[in-house]
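pinging the channel bc i need a second pair of eyes. not urgent but kinda urgent?? the chain im working w is below, pasted from the shared doc
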Amino acid sequence: MSSFFQLFMAWGLLVVFVLVLYVVDKVNVIYTGYSQPELPKTYNDGLFGELSGKTLWDAMSGIPVPGSDANLVNSLKPHYEPVLRQHIEQVFMEGYTHGRSGTAGVPTNNRIIPTPRGSLESWLPMHHLASIYQAGVDFAAQNPEDALRIQQSLDQVTSMIYARLGLDLKEAYSATLLIYPEEDLEQTMLPPSDLEVPLAQMTAPTAMATEMAPAVAPAAQVAMPTVQPLTPDLEPSALQPDLSQLQAAATTAENMPHGAPVLAEEAKAVPA
């Protein structure tokens, strides 16, 4: 009986020890999951292999890179052109945004560019980036006198980048980047002045003039004297009024005796 009890106690202690180990392991897993910060997922475009950042720029610009095949690099150039275009556009728009807010600074060489297969780190020389960034800052000033200079500067630096990489620049960057957003155009438009007279109020409509003509015509006929037709001897601008009534009135006044009273037609007799 004593041996059975000892065996039972041994098995019991073994089970408890296993349970303790299991619980400790679970606690450690839970603690590790909550204690480590959640790191953002990183993606990499596997098409370019180990080429990224400055190494990718060196390889695309013709500088030998250890471990890279020249034929492979040449075949990757058409896929690198969209990455380069995004990099240039982002730097220009960053300069434009900083110019609008008055916080112009210095751009960075490296930039993460999204691709259909993930993302890729791109790198450009600082002297090229500074010219592109400054073009965006100057374009934000919206000065018409600097438009030609900005266009020439942007097209020149982008042409140099493409020529160094051996890529064909099919469309100038000035044709797609030197366009103001709609919200900026709405902000630059000034409201009309209160003293400005609309064009519709300056010119009377023809329909209104036609409707008002019959109402004004009778008054004009009563107020204006009779006008004789033009004669060939007179100038086209001369008008001859009808003076026959005035001459008849003058003749009647001369024939009347001096001192005769002139009575009104509606005068009534004064009672005695």
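so The longest strand covers residues 110-115. and Residues 48-181 form one domain. — does that match what u expected or am i reading it wrong
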